[in-house]
């Protein structure tokens, strides 16, 4: 993949290496290591949009706006028509962190579920600030746990704003619960308890109604079943709430 000289100049480098390709269904996203660095950043992320559209503009505008408001999002170093170069956030995605916690809990067989309140609240506080700084007009829509990284200081960064749209917080809240439940191993007893914790912390923070939110989660799982041709048993989760 060849990028133009503007990119090399911005990164203060004469050469670069695409060190890692990240998991992405929609785009090409790479970790790039600058070789022969003159000054400044040594590592960055290149996101090349495979279907450049109006959504890139939305993503860039939001990254700039939210950063200006002090929300933890990656800094944009360079933007072109089809790609952006941004700050590399060192850490683990929230999906990796959650999977690690589930594995650790399982290794310690016989141990009851350990609360993850602190981790969940860190994410929810990021969400609260996102809704606040978009004046309650936008939701994330694509609220999967790969779109958040927790760095070594425990700070959550959010990104991937291409699908942001008008909507209700309940929609994001319900998607978050539904996505968590359906990551492999889906609907495990640990995931049911983790999601229950997420559900109640979301209710509390955003003053939502439990019946309304539960209905939304059920709707999301029905959507997932249709899209992924699955037959996840919704009541497994509903029973933990009632
Ligand atoms: N700034 C970043 N720092 C570190 N990793 C990133 C960064 N941006 C993206 N990634 C990694 O790349 C993946 C895909 O990027 P994302 O912006 O979510 O694109 P997509 O729209 O294709 O999902 C993320 O899940 C994450 O693992
Ligand atoms: Mg993503």
TrEMBL record:
<dbReference type="InterPro" id="IPR018934">
    <property type="entry name" value="RIO_dom"/>
</dbReference>
<dbReference type="GO" id="GO:0005524">
    <property type="term" value="F:ATP binding"/>
</dbReference>
<feature type="domain" description="RIO-type">
    <location>
        <begin position="53"/>
        <end position="157"/>
    </location>
</feature>
<protein>
    <recommendedName>
        <fullName>non-specific serine/threonine protein kinase</fullName>
        <ecNumber>2.7.11.1</ecNumber>
    </recommendedName>
</protein>
<dbReference type="GO" id="GO:0004674">
    <property type="term" value="F:protein serine/threonine kinase activity"/>
</dbReference>
<dbReference type="Pfam" id="PF01163">
    <property type="entry name" value="RIO1"/>
</dbReference>
<keyword id="KW-0067">ATP-binding</keyword>
<dbReference type="InterPro" id="IPR011009">
    <property type="entry name" value="Kinase-like_dom_sf"/>
</dbReference>
<keyword id="KW-0418">Kinase</keyword>
<keyword id="KW-0547">Nucleotide-binding</keyword>
<keyword id="KW-0723">Serine/threonine-protein kinase</keyword>
<keyword id="KW-0808">Transferase</keyword>
